[in-house]
UniProtKB/TrEMBL annotation:
Keywords: Acyltransferase, Cell shape, Cell wall biogenesis/degradation, Peptidoglycan synthesis, Transferase. It comes from the Archaea. Residues 162-287 form the BioF2-like acetyltransferase domain. GO terms for molecular function: aminoacyltransferase activity. Belongs to the FemABX family. Pfam families: Acetyltransf_6. The lineage of its organism: Archaea, Methanobacteriati, Methanobacteriota, Stenosarchaea group, Methanomicrobia. It comes from Methanococcoides alaskense. GO terms for biological process: cell wall macromolecule biosynthetic process; cell wall organization; regulation of cell shape. This is Lipid II:glycine glycyltransferase (Peptidoglycan interpeptide bridge formation enzyme). InterPro entries: Acyl_CoA_acyltransferase, BioF2-like_GNAT_dom, FEMABX, PG_Glycine_Bridge_Synth.
Amino acid sequence: MIEITDSLDPKLWDKFVYEHPYGNIFQTASMANVYRQAKSYVPFSLAAIDPDDGEVLAILQASIISEMSGVAGSFTGRGVIMGGPLVKEGERGKEALSLLLKEYGSSVKSKVVYSQMRNIRDTSDIKETILSYGYEYDQHLDFLIDLDRDEAEIWSDISKSRRKGVNRAEKSGIMIKKVENDAELKASYDLIHQTYLNVKMPVADFSLFKAIYAEFVPKDMADFFIALQDDVPVGARITLNYKDLVYDWYAGSLADVPYVDEALVWNILNSNAGKYKVFDFGGAGHPDKPYGVREFKRRFGGQQVNFGRYKKVHGKLRNRMAEVGYGVYRRLK
């Protein structure tokens, strides 16, 4: 017998995540606290346990994101399961995952248009179980850079054009520092927000960034970097740091200031060399679809991987209406 609960002790939850070989920051209880503080975000957390001994067999944590409330929310809501679910090895774990997916699906189907699992590892061990619950797999690339070496080795793997960009950024007076106050935090967000507007992509509310900063920076689980040129903010990059992984979360820069992105990425790689094992570039799009950022990331010398994503549409009509609405949004922007 396996029991499903939405009220697992946060300490037990985080112990399971930390000890799991694929444990990641997105599945922690701390991330649920972040979602509670962010506008348009609601955490949805489920655990499967053995009621006889209390052993945790699997967990699944999603963020339910909707810019609207009430009935309208069911036409804009989406469930995003970052980095999860996490499952104990073996048939017992797969059974637990099956029950979690069933409970999750029945709970959110009227609240979200679709659910998406954004993988940060190879999920072939649980792929069959996930597909059996109506999810479809699609390709999605990423680049992983080995940080478990000295900075000179990392530098040597970077393309000449990117190294040249880093050097030119330094000569142009671009300086990188960690965000230290509310003004710098807001300036960083403004740069990210404008960058997303420029490419007609939605970006989360400032409240999510404030919550991440408050929850994770004091624990050394996030870094907010800001680039300055003549004391003017010209770029920003945010990483989430957990166990052996540095995850490239959000980035933005002024379009008319060259080489700031190269400088920010190198600063992250340089400062984390030998401290963590892997830098995850946060995705590089579908291999068959144009994605300009992919080439920028590729030239930093990482290993290209294709962990893919899973998606389940909970309401085909609502999904179609949401797609039409998003198309209108992009044209208006």
